[in-house]
Amino acid sequence: MTSLRTALTRPRTGRPPAGGLGAFPRLAKLVLRSVAARWATLTGSFLALTIGTALIAVMGRALAGTGPLPASEELTTAVALLGTAAGVTGFVSVFVVASTFSYAVAQRRRELGLLRLAGASRAFVRRLVLGEALILGTLASATGCALAAPAAPRLTAWLADERLAPPGLAVTGAVWPYHLAFWTGLGVTLAGVTAAARRAGRTAPAEALKEAAVDDRAMTPGRWLAGGGLLVTALALTAWRLATDPGELLHRKTYTVQPMLLVTAVALLAPVCAVPLCRLAGRALPGWTGRVARGGAVAAVRRTGAVAAPVLMTVALAGSLLGTVGTVNAAKAAEAAARTRAQYVVTGDVGGVRPPAGARTLASAPTRVEAREDSDRWIGWEGRAVNPYDLAALTRLPVTAGRITDLDDDGIIVTEEWLTHRVGATVPVRLADGSRRTLRIAAVLATGTGETGAYVTPANAPGATPDRLEVRGTTAHALREAAPHAEIRTAARWLADTRPGTGRATRAGFALILGIALLYGVLVLANTLWMSTADRAHDLRALRLAGATKTQTLTTVAAETLLVVTVGGLLGAAVAALTLAPLTVALAALSAPVTLSVPWTTLGLLLAACALAALPAALVPAWWRLRKRQTGSDAPPH
Protein backbone atom coordinates (compact mmCIF):
# COMPACT_ATOMS: atom_id res chain seq x y z
CA MET A 1 0.00 0.00 0.00
CA THR A 2 1.24 3.47 -0.84
CA SER A 3 0.90 6.52 1.33
CA LEU A 4 -2.29 7.67 -0.39
CA ARG A 5 -4.13 4.46 0.38
CA THR A 6 -2.76 4.44 3.93
CA ALA A 7 -3.82 8.03 4.47
CA LEU A 8 -7.29 7.42 3.08
CA THR A 9 -7.98 4.22 5.02
CA ARG A 10 -7.03 5.70 8.42
CA PRO A 11 -9.95 6.65 10.67
CA ARG A 12 -10.49 10.36 10.48
CA THR A 13 -13.11 12.93 11.32
CA GLY A 14 -14.54 15.72 9.25
CA ARG A 15 -15.25 15.95 5.57
CA PRO A 16 -13.20 14.27 2.89
CA PRO A 17 -10.65 16.33 0.98
CA ALA A 18 -13.00 18.18 -1.29
CA GLY A 19 -10.39 20.70 -2.39
CA GLY A 20 -11.30 23.93 -0.53
CA LEU A 21 -9.07 26.03 1.73
CA GLY A 22 -9.77 23.73 4.62
CA ALA A 23 -8.24 20.87 2.69
CA PHE A 24 -4.78 22.48 2.53
CA PRO A 25 -3.33 20.95 5.74
CA ARG A 26 -4.60 17.53 4.70
CA LEU A 27 -3.20 18.06 1.22
CA ALA A 28 0.21 19.05 2.60
CA LYS A 29 0.36 15.95 4.79
CA LEU A 30 -0.71 13.77 1.90
CA VAL A 31 1.96 15.28 -0.39
CA LEU A 32 4.72 14.72 2.16
CA ARG A 33 3.62 11.12 2.80
CA SER A 34 3.42 10.43 -0.92
CA VAL A 35 6.91 11.78 -1.59
CA ALA A 36 8.32 9.84 1.36
CA ALA A 37 6.69 6.61 0.20
CA ARG A 38 7.63 7.02 -3.47
CA TRP A 39 11.20 8.29 -3.07
CA ALA A 40 12.62 5.30 -4.94
CA THR A 41 10.57 5.99 -8.07
CA LEU A 42 11.35 9.71 -7.88
CA THR A 43 15.11 9.18 -7.61
CA GLY A 44 15.66 9.34 -11.38
CA SER A 45 13.81 12.64 -11.72
CA PHE A 46 15.59 14.03 -8.67
CA LEU A 47 19.02 13.14 -10.05
CA ALA A 48 18.15 14.48 -13.50
CA LEU A 49 16.93 17.79 -12.09
CA THR A 50 19.90 18.05 -9.74
CA ILE A 51 22.37 17.48 -12.56
CA GLY A 52 20.47 19.83 -14.85
CA THR A 53 20.39 22.63 -12.27
CA ALA A 54 24.07 22.12 -11.48
CA LEU A 55 25.01 22.22 -15.17
CA ILE A 56 23.01 25.39 -15.80
CA ALA A 57 24.59 27.07 -12.77
CA VAL A 58 28.08 25.95 -13.77
CA MET A 59 27.61 27.11 -17.37
CA GLY A 60 26.13 30.38 -16.16
CA ARG A 61 29.17 31.01 -13.96
CA ALA A 62 31.45 30.19 -16.88
CA LEU A 63 29.50 32.56 -19.15
CA ALA A 64 29.72 35.26 -16.49
CA GLY A 65 33.49 34.90 -16.65
CA THR A 66 33.54 35.64 -20.40
CA GLY A 67 32.38 39.23 -19.92
CA PRO A 68 35.78 40.84 -19.20
CA LEU A 69 37.60 38.89 -21.94
CA PRO A 70 38.38 40.45 -25.33
CA ALA A 71 36.67 39.08 -28.43
CA SER A 72 38.40 36.04 -29.94
CA GLU A 73 37.64 32.82 -31.78
CA GLU A 74 38.05 30.81 -28.56
CA LEU A 75 35.60 33.09 -26.76
CA THR A 76 33.02 32.69 -29.53
CA THR A 77 33.47 28.92 -29.37
CA ALA A 78 33.02 28.90 -25.59
CA VAL A 79 29.86 31.01 -25.66
CA ALA A 80 28.33 28.89 -28.45
CA LEU A 81 29.19 25.63 -26.70
CA LEU A 82 27.91 26.72 -23.30
CA GLY A 83 24.71 28.10 -24.81
CA THR A 84 24.05 24.91 -26.78
CA ALA A 85 24.82 22.68 -23.81
CA ALA A 86 22.53 24.74 -21.56
CA GLY A 87 19.74 24.50 -24.13
CA VAL A 88 20.14 20.72 -24.43
CA THR A 89 20.23 20.43 -20.63
CA GLY A 90 17.03 22.42 -20.21
CA PHE A 91 15.24 20.42 -22.90
CA VAL A 92 16.19 16.98 -21.60
CA SER A 93 15.33 18.05 -18.03
CA VAL A 94 11.78 18.96 -19.08
CA PHE A 95 11.63 15.76 -21.12
CA VAL A 96 12.73 13.61 -18.18
CA VAL A 97 10.32 15.16 -15.69
CA ALA A 98 7.38 15.10 -18.10
CA SER A 99 8.04 11.48 -19.09
CA THR A 100 8.52 10.28 -15.50
CA PHE A 101 5.47 11.99 -14.03
CA SER A 102 3.27 11.06 -16.98
CA TYR A 103 4.07 7.40 -16.50
CA ALA A 104 3.79 7.70 -12.71
CA VAL A 105 0.27 9.11 -13.01
CA ALA A 106 -0.67 6.28 -15.38
CA GLN A 107 0.67 3.79 -12.81
CA ARG A 108 -1.32 5.36 -10.01
CA ARG A 109 -4.72 5.17 -11.70
CA ARG A 110 -6.20 2.95 -9.01
CA GLU A 111 -4.57 4.96 -6.24
CA LEU A 112 -5.86 8.27 -7.56
CA GLY A 113 -9.23 6.68 -8.29
CA LEU A 114 -9.39 5.62 -4.65
CA LEU A 115 -8.72 9.20 -3.63
CA ARG A 116 -11.51 10.40 -5.92
CA LEU A 117 -13.79 7.69 -4.54
CA ALA A 118 -13.13 9.07 -1.04
CA GLY A 119 -14.49 12.44 -2.14
CA ALA A 120 -11.45 14.38 -3.35
CA SER A 121 -12.14 16.90 -6.08
CA ARG A 122 -10.28 17.03 -9.37
CA ALA A 123 -8.52 20.20 -8.25
CA PHE A 124 -7.36 18.45 -5.06
CA VAL A 125 -5.81 15.57 -7.02
CA ARG A 126 -4.22 18.02 -9.44
CA ARG A 127 -2.69 19.98 -6.55
CA LEU A 128 -1.44 16.75 -5.02
CA VAL A 129 0.65 15.91 -8.08
CA LEU A 130 1.84 19.52 -8.43
CA GLY A 131 2.78 19.55 -4.75
CA GLU A 132 4.90 16.44 -5.18
CA ALA A 133 6.65 18.07 -8.13
CA LEU A 134 7.17 21.30 -6.18
CA ILE A 135 8.92 19.47 -3.34
CA LEU A 136 11.01 17.47 -5.79
CA GLY A 137 11.97 20.54 -7.83
CA THR A 138 12.86 22.64 -4.77
CA LEU A 139 15.11 19.99 -3.24
CA ALA A 140 16.75 19.11 -6.57
CA SER A 141 17.33 22.75 -7.54
CA ALA A 142 18.87 23.59 -4.17
CA THR A 143 21.12 20.52 -4.32
CA GLY A 144 22.19 21.35 -7.88
CA CYS A 145 23.13 24.91 -6.92
CA ALA A 146 25.18 23.58 -4.00
CA LEU A 147 27.05 21.20 -6.30
CA ALA A 148 27.74 23.95 -8.84
CA ALA A 149 30.02 25.91 -6.51
CA PRO A 150 32.96 23.44 -6.60
CA ALA A 151 32.21 22.24 -10.14
CA ALA A 152 32.41 25.59 -11.97
CA PRO A 153 36.21 26.08 -11.63
CA ARG A 154 36.76 22.53 -12.91
CA LEU A 155 34.60 23.17 -15.98
CA THR A 156 36.39 26.38 -16.88
CA ALA A 157 39.77 24.65 -16.45
CA TRP A 158 38.62 21.80 -18.70
CA LEU A 159 37.35 24.22 -21.33
CA ALA A 160 40.70 25.99 -21.37
CA ASP A 161 42.65 22.69 -21.52
CA GLU A 162 40.58 21.50 -24.46
CA ARG A 163 40.99 24.88 -26.19
CA LEU A 164 37.26 25.48 -26.03
CA ALA A 165 37.72 28.77 -24.17
CA PRO A 166 40.38 31.48 -23.83
CA PRO A 167 43.13 30.71 -21.28
CA GLY A 168 42.07 33.71 -19.18
CA LEU A 169 38.56 32.38 -18.51
CA ALA A 170 37.94 32.26 -14.76
CA VAL A 171 34.93 31.92 -12.48
CA THR A 172 33.65 35.21 -11.07
CA GLY A 173 31.66 35.96 -7.94
CA ALA A 174 28.43 36.59 -9.86
CA VAL A 175 25.35 35.20 -8.11
CA TRP A 176 22.86 35.52 -10.98
CA PRO A 177 23.79 32.04 -12.33
CA TYR A 178 22.51 30.50 -9.09
CA HIS A 179 19.21 32.39 -9.29
CA LEU A 180 18.89 31.45 -12.95
CA ALA A 181 19.62 27.78 -12.27
CA PHE A 182 17.34 27.47 -9.20
CA TRP A 183 14.30 29.10 -10.76
CA THR A 184 14.92 27.33 -14.07
CA GLY A 185 15.03 23.99 -12.27
CA LEU A 186 11.81 24.76 -10.43
CA GLY A 187 10.16 26.06 -13.59
CA VAL A 188 11.29 23.02 -15.56
CA THR A 189 9.76 20.75 -12.92
CA LEU A 190 6.39 22.49 -12.92
CA ALA A 191 6.36 22.77 -16.72
CA GLY A 192 7.13 19.09 -17.09
CA VAL A 193 4.47 17.96 -14.61
CA THR A 194 1.63 20.27 -15.65
CA ALA A 195 0.19 17.88 -18.24
CA ALA A 196 0.51 14.92 -15.84
CA ALA A 197 -1.28 16.90 -13.11
CA ARG A 198 -4.17 17.74 -15.42
CA ARG A 199 -4.44 14.11 -16.39
CA ALA A 200 -4.38 13.07 -12.74
CA GLY A 201 -7.24 15.46 -12.03
CA ARG A 202 -9.32 13.75 -14.71
CA THR A 203 -8.97 10.34 -13.05
CA ALA A 204 -12.42 8.87 -12.51
CA PRO A 205 -13.42 7.17 -9.23
CA ALA A 206 -14.13 3.98 -11.21
CA GLU A 207 -10.39 3.60 -11.86
CA ALA A 208 -10.07 2.32 -8.29
CA LEU A 209 -11.96 -0.83 -9.33
CA LYS A 210 -9.91 -1.64 -12.44
CA GLU A 211 -7.52 -4.57 -12.46
CA ALA A 212 -6.69 -4.83 -16.19
CA ALA A 213 -3.06 -4.18 -17.15
CA VAL A 214 -3.92 -3.49 -20.79
CA ASP A 215 -3.76 0.19 -21.67
CA ASP A 216 -7.10 0.87 -23.31
CA ARG A 217 -6.63 4.62 -23.71
CA ALA A 218 -2.97 5.49 -23.99
CA MET A 219 -3.63 8.36 -26.40
CA THR A 220 -5.79 11.13 -24.96
CA PRO A 221 -7.19 13.98 -27.09
CA GLY A 222 -4.68 16.35 -25.48
CA ARG A 223 -1.80 14.06 -26.36
CA TRP A 224 -3.00 13.76 -29.95
CA LEU A 225 -3.33 17.53 -30.17
CA ALA A 226 0.07 18.30 -28.61
CA GLY A 227 1.98 15.61 -30.50
CA GLY A 228 0.31 16.26 -33.83
CA GLY A 229 0.56 20.01 -33.40
CA LEU A 230 4.29 19.90 -32.63
CA LEU A 231 4.93 17.55 -35.54
CA VAL A 232 3.04 19.74 -37.99
CA THR A 233 4.76 22.85 -36.59
CA ALA A 234 8.23 21.34 -36.97
CA LEU A 235 7.56 20.17 -40.52
CA ALA A 236 5.92 23.48 -41.47
CA LEU A 237 8.88 25.49 -40.12
CA THR A 238 11.25 23.29 -42.11
CA ALA A 239 9.24 23.75 -45.30
CA TRP A 240 9.08 27.49 -44.74
CA ARG A 241 12.84 27.72 -44.28
CA LEU A 242 13.43 25.66 -47.41
CA ALA A 243 11.18 27.97 -49.39
CA THR A 244 12.52 31.28 -48.05
CA ASP A 245 16.08 30.79 -46.78
CA PRO A 246 17.58 27.28 -47.18
CA GLY A 247 20.83 28.45 -45.61
CA GLU A 248 19.03 28.83 -42.28
CA LEU A 249 18.95 25.02 -41.93
CA LEU A 250 22.75 25.02 -41.82
CA HIS A 251 22.92 27.29 -38.76
CA ARG A 252 23.60 25.92 -35.28
CA LYS A 253 20.49 27.40 -33.66
CA THR A 254 18.25 25.74 -36.24
CA TYR A 255 19.71 22.25 -36.14
CA THR A 256 19.82 22.38 -32.33
CA VAL A 257 16.20 23.46 -31.78
CA GLN A 258 14.50 21.59 -34.63
CA PRO A 259 15.28 18.07 -33.31
CA MET A 260 13.88 19.05 -29.92
CA LEU A 261 10.48 19.81 -31.47
CA LEU A 262 10.53 16.54 -33.39
CA VAL A 263 11.69 14.51 -30.37
CA THR A 264 8.86 15.92 -28.25
CA ALA A 265 6.30 15.32 -31.00
CA VAL A 266 7.35 11.72 -31.65
CA ALA A 267 7.60 11.00 -27.90
CA LEU A 268 4.01 12.17 -27.44
CA LEU A 269 2.93 10.00 -30.36
CA ALA A 270 5.09 7.07 -29.23
CA PRO A 271 2.16 4.92 -28.01
CA VAL A 272 0.77 5.02 -31.58
CA CYS A 273 4.11 4.51 -33.34
CA ALA A 274 5.40 1.89 -30.93
CA VAL A 275 2.68 -0.71 -31.51
CA PRO A 276 3.39 -1.44 -35.20
CA LEU A 277 7.14 -1.19 -34.61
CA CYS A 278 6.92 -3.67 -31.72
CA ARG A 279 5.02 -6.11 -33.90
CA LEU A 280 7.50 -5.65 -36.76
CA ALA A 281 10.71 -5.80 -34.72
CA GLY A 282 9.30 -8.53 -32.46
CA ARG A 283 9.21 -10.96 -35.39
CA ALA A 284 12.97 -11.31 -35.00
CA LEU A 285 12.47 -12.84 -31.53
CA PRO A 286 12.11 -16.63 -31.78
CA GLY A 287 9.66 -19.02 -30.12
CA TRP A 288 7.18 -18.40 -27.37
CA THR A 289 9.58 -16.02 -25.64
CA GLY A 290 9.35 -13.68 -28.60
CA ARG A 291 5.58 -13.95 -28.77
CA VAL A 292 5.16 -13.20 -25.08
CA ALA A 293 7.63 -10.31 -25.19
CA ARG A 294 5.92 -8.87 -28.25
CA GLY A 295 2.49 -9.25 -26.69
CA GLY A 296 3.59 -7.64 -23.43
CA ALA A 297 5.09 -4.63 -25.22
CA VAL A 298 1.95 -4.15 -27.33
CA ALA A 299 -0.48 -4.59 -24.41
CA ALA A 300 1.37 -2.29 -21.99
CA VAL A 301 1.72 0.51 -24.50
CA ARG A 302 2.14 3.21 -21.84
CA ARG A 303 5.10 1.38 -20.37
CA THR A 304 6.49 0.76 -23.85
CA GLY A 305 6.23 4.44 -24.73
CA ALA A 306 7.76 5.54 -21.42
CA VAL A 307 10.74 3.17 -21.79
CA ALA A 308 11.25 3.98 -25.49
CA ALA A 309 11.15 7.77 -24.89
CA PRO A 310 14.64 8.21 -23.34
CA VAL A 311 16.20 5.98 -26.01
CA LEU A 312 14.38 7.99 -28.65
CA MET A 313 15.71 11.23 -27.15
CA THR A 314 19.32 10.03 -26.95
CA VAL A 315 19.48 8.54 -30.44
CA ALA A 316 17.54 11.40 -32.05
CA LEU A 317 19.70 14.15 -30.54
CA ALA A 318 22.92 12.32 -31.42
CA GLY A 319 21.78 11.47 -34.92
CA SER A 320 20.44 14.94 -35.62
CA LEU A 321 23.31 16.98 -34.16
CA LEU A 322 26.18 14.77 -35.32
CA GLY A 323 24.50 13.97 -38.62
CA THR A 324 23.78 17.62 -39.42
CA VAL A 325 27.25 18.85 -38.50
CA GLY A 326 28.88 15.90 -40.29
CA THR A 327 26.81 16.47 -43.42
CA VAL A 328 27.53 20.21 -43.47
CA ASN A 329 31.24 19.64 -42.85
CA ALA A 330 31.35 16.99 -45.58
CA ALA A 331 29.68 19.45 -47.95
CA LYS A 332 32.22 22.13 -47.02
CA ALA A 333 35.10 19.71 -47.59
CA ALA A 334 33.72 18.56 -50.95
CA GLU A 335 33.09 22.17 -51.91
CA ALA A 336 36.68 23.17 -51.09
CA ALA A 337 38.06 20.19 -53.04
CA ALA A 338 35.92 20.98 -56.08
CA ARG A 339 37.00 24.62 -56.15
CA THR A 340 40.77 24.26 -56.20
CA ARG A 341 42.99 23.53 -59.19
CA ALA A 342 46.23 23.68 -57.22
CA GLN A 343 48.70 20.81 -56.96
CA TYR A 344 50.40 22.15 -53.85
CA VAL A 345 49.52 24.53 -51.05
CA VAL A 346 52.20 26.51 -49.24
CA THR A 347 51.34 27.97 -45.83
CA GLY A 348 53.23 29.84 -43.14
CA ASP A 349 55.90 32.33 -44.19
CA VAL A 350 54.89 32.84 -47.83
CA GLY A 351 55.44 36.60 -48.11
CA GLY A 352 58.94 36.36 -49.62
CA VAL A 353 58.50 33.17 -51.66
CA ARG A 354 59.65 33.44 -55.27
CA PRO A 355 57.73 30.78 -57.25
CA PRO A 356 59.75 28.40 -59.46
CA ALA A 357 59.93 29.26 -63.14
CA GLY A 358 56.86 28.18 -65.09
CA ALA A 359 54.68 27.73 -62.00
CA ARG A 360 51.26 29.36 -61.73
CA THR A 361 50.50 30.66 -58.25
CA LEU A 362 47.69 32.26 -56.29
CA ALA A 363 48.71 34.21 -53.21
CA SER A 364 45.82 35.13 -50.93
CA ALA A 365 45.55 37.06 -47.67
CA PRO A 366 42.76 36.94 -45.12
CA THR A 367 40.76 40.10 -44.62
CA ARG A 368 37.33 41.23 -43.51
CA VAL A 369 34.67 43.31 -45.24
CA GLU A 370 31.55 44.76 -43.66
CA ALA A 371 28.56 45.55 -45.88
CA ARG A 372 25.83 47.98 -45.00
CA GLU A 373 22.44 46.26 -44.89
CA ASP A 374 20.42 49.32 -43.89
CA SER A 375 20.98 52.77 -42.44
CA ASP A 376 22.54 51.64 -39.16
CA ARG A 377 23.43 47.94 -39.51
CA TRP A 378 26.65 46.45 -40.88
CA ILE A 379 27.13 42.74 -41.63
CA GLY A 380 30.65 41.31 -41.45
CA TRP A 381 32.00 38.89 -44.07
CA GLU A 382 35.25 36.98 -44.17
CA GLY A 383 37.19 37.71 -47.34
CA ARG A 384 40.39 37.01 -49.27
CA ALA A 385 42.61 39.52 -51.02
CA VAL A 386 43.71 38.10 -54.39
CA ASN A 387 44.89 38.82 -57.92
CA PRO A 388 41.79 38.22 -60.12
CA TYR A 389 43.69 36.54 -62.98
CA ASP A 390 45.46 34.15 -60.61
CA LEU A 391 42.14 33.47 -58.88
CA ALA A 392 40.52 32.53 -62.20
CA ALA A 393 43.44 30.27 -63.15
CA LEU A 394 43.80 28.38 -59.83
CA THR A 395 40.14 27.98 -58.74
CA ARG A 396 36.77 26.75 -60.01
CA LEU A 397 34.46 29.19 -58.27
CA PRO A 398 30.68 28.74 -58.84
CA VAL A 399 30.09 31.97 -60.73
CA THR A 400 26.40 32.70 -61.36
CA ALA A 401 26.85 36.15 -62.90
CA GLY A 402 29.73 38.30 -64.10
CA ARG A 403 33.39 37.30 -64.53
CA ILE A 404 36.16 36.84 -61.98
CA THR A 405 38.66 38.69 -64.17
CA ASP A 406 36.47 41.81 -64.02
CA LEU A 407 37.56 42.31 -60.40
CA ASP A 408 39.71 45.42 -59.94
CA ASP A 409 40.60 47.93 -57.22
CA ASP A 410 37.11 49.42 -57.44
CA GLY A 411 35.30 46.09 -57.39
CA ILE A 412 34.32 43.17 -55.19
CA ILE A 413 33.11 39.58 -55.72
CA VAL A 414 30.16 38.63 -53.50
CA THR A 415 27.82 35.66 -53.04
CA GLU A 416 24.07 35.41 -53.53
CA GLU A 417 23.74 35.62 -49.75
CA TRP A 418 24.47 39.35 -49.83
CA LEU A 419 21.46 41.66 -49.75
CA THR A 420 22.70 43.34 -52.94
CA HIS A 421 24.10 40.78 -55.39
CA ARG A 422 23.56 42.18 -58.87
CA VAL A 423 26.53 42.56 -61.19
CA GLY A 424 27.29 46.23 -61.76
CA ALA A 425 25.50 47.39 -58.61
CA THR A 426 27.47 49.29 -55.98
CA VAL A 427 27.63 48.41 -52.29
CA PRO A 428 28.94 50.59 -49.44
CA VAL A 429 31.53 48.60 -47.47
CA ARG A 430 33.80 49.08 -44.49
CA LEU A 431 37.29 47.64 -44.91
CA ALA A 432 39.45 45.90 -42.32
CA ASP A 433 41.02 49.17 -41.13
CA GLY A 434 37.63 50.83 -40.70
CA SER A 435 37.82 52.95 -43.84
CA ARG A 436 34.70 53.15 -45.99
CA ARG A 437 34.42 52.64 -49.71
CA THR A 438 31.76 52.05 -52.32
CA LEU A 439 32.65 49.06 -54.51
CA ARG A 440 31.10 47.75 -57.70
CA ILE A 441 30.04 44.10 -57.84
CA ALA A 442 32.21 42.40 -60.47
CA ALA A 443 30.88 38.85 -60.11
CA VAL A 444 28.38 36.88 -58.05
CA LEU A 445 29.00 33.38 -56.67
CA ALA A 446 26.56 30.69 -55.55
CA THR A 447 26.03 30.73 -51.78
CA GLY A 448 27.06 27.11 -51.20
CA THR A 449 27.74 26.28 -47.57
CA GLY A 450 28.45 29.89 -46.70
CA GLU A 451 32.23 29.48 -46.60
CA THR A 452 32.93 31.39 -49.82
CA GLY A 453 33.01 34.89 -48.36
CA ALA A 454 34.06 37.84 -50.50
CA TYR A 455 37.04 38.57 -52.76
CA VAL A 456 38.78 41.92 -53.15
CA THR A 457 42.11 43.06 -54.51
CA PRO A 458 45.05 43.75 -52.13
CA ALA A 459 44.34 47.49 -52.47
CA ASN A 460 41.11 46.95 -50.49
CA ALA A 461 42.72 44.75 -47.81
CA PRO A 462 44.86 47.18 -45.77
CA GLY A 463 47.32 45.42 -43.50
CA ALA A 464 46.57 41.96 -44.91
CA THR A 465 49.55 39.60 -45.25
CA PRO A 466 49.44 36.54 -47.53
CA ASP A 467 49.18 33.33 -45.53
CA ARG A 468 48.56 30.86 -48.34
CA LEU A 469 50.11 30.19 -51.73
CA GLU A 470 48.37 27.79 -54.11
CA VAL A 471 50.67 26.41 -56.81
CA ARG A 472 50.46 24.27 -59.92
CA GLY A 473 52.86 23.47 -62.76
CA THR A 474 55.93 22.64 -60.65
CA THR A 475 57.40 19.96 -58.37
CA ALA A 476 57.58 19.60 -54.60
CA HIS A 477 61.40 19.66 -54.76
CA ALA A 478 61.41 22.99 -56.59
CA LEU A 479 58.94 24.41 -54.08
CA ARG A 480 61.08 23.34 -51.13
CA GLU A 481 64.02 25.16 -52.61
CA ALA A 482 61.92 28.27 -53.25
CA ALA A 483 60.25 28.24 -49.81
CA PRO A 484 62.60 26.55 -47.31
CA HIS A 485 60.87 28.07 -44.25
CA ALA A 486 57.27 27.44 -45.28
CA GLU A 487 55.12 24.34 -44.96
CA ILE A 488 54.49 22.62 -48.29
CA ARG A 489 51.67 20.09 -48.70
CA THR A 490 49.89 18.52 -51.60
CA ALA A 491 46.43 19.94 -52.21
CA ALA A 492 44.86 16.67 -51.06
CA ARG A 493 46.83 16.68 -47.80
CA TRP A 494 46.03 20.34 -47.14
CA LEU A 495 42.33 19.70 -47.74
CA ALA A 496 42.40 16.76 -45.32
CA ASP A 497 44.26 18.75 -42.65
CA THR A 498 41.88 21.71 -42.88
CA ARG A 499 38.68 19.65 -43.18
CA PRO A 500 35.98 21.17 -40.93
CA GLY A 501 35.11 19.29 -37.77
CA THR A 502 38.39 17.45 -37.33
CA GLY A 503 39.73 19.68 -34.57
CA ARG A 504 40.13 18.66 -30.95
CA ALA A 505 37.82 21.45 -29.82
CA THR A 506 35.00 20.18 -32.05
CA ARG A 507 35.30 16.63 -30.72
CA ALA A 508 35.41 17.81 -27.11
CA GLY A 509 32.32 19.96 -27.62
CA PHE A 510 30.35 17.08 -29.07
CA ALA A 511 31.54 14.82 -26.25
CA LEU A 512 30.13 17.30 -23.71
CA ILE A 513 26.73 17.65 -25.39
CA LEU A 514 26.29 13.95 -26.15
CA GLY A 515 27.50 13.05 -22.67
CA ILE A 516 24.70 15.16 -21.21
CA ALA A 517 22.11 13.52 -23.47
CA LEU A 518 23.37 9.99 -22.71
CA LEU A 519 23.52 10.61 -18.96
CA TYR A 520 19.94 11.82 -18.89
CA GLY A 521 18.79 9.04 -21.18
CA VAL A 522 20.30 6.32 -19.00
CA LEU A 523 18.92 7.90 -15.82
CA VAL A 524 15.32 8.13 -17.00
CA LEU A 525 15.50 4.72 -18.69
CA ALA A 526 16.66 2.97 -15.51
CA ASN A 527 14.17 4.93 -13.39
CA THR A 528 11.22 4.11 -15.66
CA LEU A 529 12.06 0.41 -15.77
CA TRP A 530 12.38 0.33 -12.00
CA MET A 531 9.02 2.06 -11.68
CA SER A 532 7.42 -0.50 -14.00
CA THR A 533 8.13 -3.34 -11.53
CA ALA A 534 4.63 -3.06 -10.10
CA ASP A 535 3.12 -3.30 -13.60
CA ARG A 536 5.06 -6.50 -14.26
CA ALA A 537 3.94 -8.28 -11.08
CA HIS A 538 0.73 -9.66 -12.62
CA ASP A 539 2.54 -10.69 -15.83
CA LEU A 540 5.26 -12.48 -13.90
CA ARG A 541 2.73 -14.40 -11.81
CA ALA A 542 0.81 -15.39 -14.94
CA LEU A 543 3.97 -16.70 -16.62
CA ARG A 544 4.91 -18.74 -13.57
CA LEU A 545 1.40 -20.18 -13.32
CA ALA A 546 1.57 -21.11 -17.01
CA GLY A 547 4.60 -23.28 -16.25
CA ALA A 548 7.50 -20.99 -17.15
CA THR A 549 10.64 -21.43 -15.10
CA LYS A 550 12.30 -18.51 -13.35
CA THR A 551 14.99 -18.40 -16.03
CA GLN A 552 12.40 -18.41 -18.82
CA THR A 553 10.46 -15.64 -17.11
CA LEU A 554 13.55 -13.46 -16.76
CA THR A 555 14.48 -14.22 -20.37
CA THR A 556 11.07 -12.93 -21.44
CA VAL A 557 11.57 -9.74 -19.44
CA ALA A 558 14.99 -9.25 -21.03
CA ALA A 559 13.58 -9.87 -24.52
CA GLU A 560 10.77 -7.36 -24.02
CA THR A 561 13.22 -4.78 -22.65
CA LEU A 562 15.57 -5.15 -25.62
CA LEU A 563 12.60 -5.02 -27.99
CA VAL A 564 11.39 -1.72 -26.52
CA VAL A 565 14.93 -0.26 -26.53
CA THR A 566 15.17 -1.22 -30.22
CA VAL A 567 11.84 0.47 -30.92
CA GLY A 568 13.10 3.61 -29.18
CA GLY A 569 16.22 3.50 -31.35
CA LEU A 570 14.10 3.17 -34.50
CA LEU A 571 11.97 6.15 -33.48
CA GLY A 572 15.12 8.15 -32.77
CA ALA A 573 16.50 7.22 -36.18
CA ALA A 574 13.23 8.39 -37.74
CA VAL A 575 13.59 11.79 -36.04
CA ALA A 576 17.19 12.04 -37.26
CA ALA A 577 16.02 11.20 -40.79
CA LEU A 578 13.35 13.92 -40.60
CA THR A 579 16.14 16.35 -39.66
CA LEU A 580 18.73 15.26 -42.24
CA ALA A 581 16.42 14.89 -45.25
CA PRO A 582 15.51 18.61 -45.48
CA LEU A 583 19.19 19.45 -44.94
CA THR A 584 20.16 17.63 -48.12
CA VAL A 585 17.44 19.53 -50.00
CA ALA A 586 18.78 22.82 -48.60
CA LEU A 587 22.35 22.00 -49.67
CA ALA A 588 21.17 21.18 -53.17
CA ALA A 589 19.19 24.44 -53.31
CA LEU A 590 22.36 26.33 -52.30
CA SER A 591 24.36 24.64 -55.10
CA ALA A 592 26.51 22.90 -52.49
CA PRO A 593 27.70 19.27 -52.71
CA VAL A 594 25.39 16.82 -50.96
CA THR A 595 27.28 14.19 -48.98
CA LEU A 596 25.06 12.66 -46.30
CA SER A 597 26.97 11.78 -43.14
CA VAL A 598 25.25 9.47 -40.66
CA PRO A 599 27.16 8.65 -37.42
CA TRP A 600 26.30 4.95 -37.47
CA THR A 601 29.07 3.94 -35.07
CA THR A 602 28.11 6.54 -32.47
CA LEU A 603 24.42 5.69 -32.74
CA GLY A 604 25.21 1.99 -32.33
CA LEU A 605 27.30 2.67 -29.24
CA LEU A 606 24.59 4.86 -27.71
CA LEU A 607 21.94 2.24 -28.38
CA ALA A 608 24.18 -0.41 -26.81
CA ALA A 609 24.71 1.82 -23.76
CA CYS A 610 20.96 2.22 -23.38
CA ALA A 611 20.49 -1.54 -23.63
CA LEU A 612 23.20 -2.19 -21.04
CA ALA A 613 21.53 0.27 -18.67
CA ALA A 614 18.05 -1.11 -19.32
CA LEU A 615 18.73 -4.82 -18.77
CA PRO A 616 19.76 -4.69 -15.08
CA ALA A 617 17.12 -2.05 -14.36
CA ALA A 618 14.46 -4.46 -15.67
CA LEU A 619 15.89 -7.80 -14.53
CA VAL A 620 16.79 -6.97 -10.92
CA PRO A 621 13.26 -5.87 -9.90
CA ALA A 622 11.76 -8.79 -11.82
CA TRP A 623 14.10 -11.22 -10.07
CA TRP A 624 13.14 -9.69 -6.72
CA ARG A 625 9.44 -10.09 -7.50
CA LEU A 626 9.98 -13.75 -8.33
CA ARG A 627 12.01 -14.21 -5.15
CA LYS A 628 9.32 -12.48 -3.11
CA ARG A 629 6.86 -15.22 -3.95
CA GLN A 630 9.18 -17.69 -2.26
CA THR A 631 10.40 -15.62 0.71
CA GLY A 632 7.36 -13.45 1.38
CA SER A 633 9.28 -10.16 1.17
CA ASP A 634 7.17 -7.06 0.92
CA ALA A 635 8.84 -4.87 -1.64
CA PRO A 636 11.76 -4.59 -4.00
CA PRO A 637 14.92 -3.03 -2.62
CA HIS A 638 15.24 0.72 -2.65
TrEMBL record:
One of its GO terms (cellular component) is plasma membrane. The keyword Membrane applies. It is found in: Cell membrane. InterPro entries: ABC3_permease_C, Macrolide_Exporter_MacB. It is a multi-pass membrane protein. Belongs to the ABC-4 integral membrane protein family. Residues 1-20 are annotated as: Disordered. This is ABC3 transporter permease C-terminal domain-containing protein.
